[in-house]
Write a structure and sequence with these properties.
Shape: globular
Largest sheet: 8 strands, antiparallel, barrel
CATH architecture: Beta Barrel
Mean pLDDT: 88
CATH superfamily: Calycin beta-barrel core domain
Number of helices: 3
Number of domains: 1
Helix content: 10-25%
Distance between the termini: 25 Å
Number of strands: 9
Strand order of the largest sheet: 1-2-3-4-5-6-7-8
CATH topology: Lipocalin
Order of helices and strands: HHEEEEEEEEHE
Length: 194
């Protein structure tokens, strides 16, 4: 593992760990309702199109996930991204995910590296599995995934409305840069992107 990949994995894990340790404290929001997930329809490629900005995803360009079934029945996550711009080298991370039993396939655990595993909740899937919303009970982190790198503004507003209905502040979301033309445009997270 290169030093840069190790730093990204460590930063992601530490940020998620700090978030996870605050979930049980008094004053946190009530648990989120989870979606019912057909795992066979979740497998395949997903573009990360929006997020609540956070330290560990700052500067990511064209983030993309591929989920597949591991031989042991768990989930293999292949995450691809560039950091800082489209000329940056493509990074690839392999992550071990699994589903907690009895959750309708919606409460995932994500193991960035052993022994750290963190919650990743499926909050919504559209009927055609074109879009999925992921989040966590604190409502501090949330993501919109799409089968396409961009989505129509009307669909984006509907998905933000789904987050709002779950108690999220939808005004905190920013779109990931998926194409060079999006850099610097309103509503896109261009911080750290050249």
């Amino acid at each position: 593992m290169t030093l840069e990949i190790g730093r990204l994995a460590t930063a992601l894990a530490l940020s998620m760990l700090m978030l996870a340790t605050t979930q049980g404290r008094a004053g946190t929001a009530e648990p989120l309702p989870l979606a019912k997930v057909d795992m066979s329809r979740m497998y395949g490629g997903w573009y990360l199109v929006a997020t609540i900005p956070n330290k560990f995803e700052r500067g990511l360009v064209a983030p993309y996930d591929v989920y597949s079934r591991r031989p042991d029945g768990d989930i293999r996550e292949d995450f691809y991204t560039r950091r800082g711009g489209f000329s940056a080298p493509l990074k690839h991370f392999v992550v071990h995910d699994w589903v907690r039993p009895g959750t309708g396939n919606a409460h995932w655990r994500v193991q960035i590296f052993w022994p750290v595993n963190l919650p990743f909740l499926v909050l919504y899937t559209d009927p055609d599995y074109r879009y999925v919303l992921f989040g966590e009970d604190n409502r501090s982190l949330g993501w919109i995934y799409s089968r396409a790198p961009t989505l129509p503004d009307a669909d984006y507003r509907v998905l933000l409305g789904q987050f709002h209905a779950l108690g999220y502040d939808e005004t905190k979301f920013r779109r990931f840069i998926q194409t060079p033309e999006q850099i610097g445009k309103p509503g896109f997270w261009s911080d750290g992107v050249r």
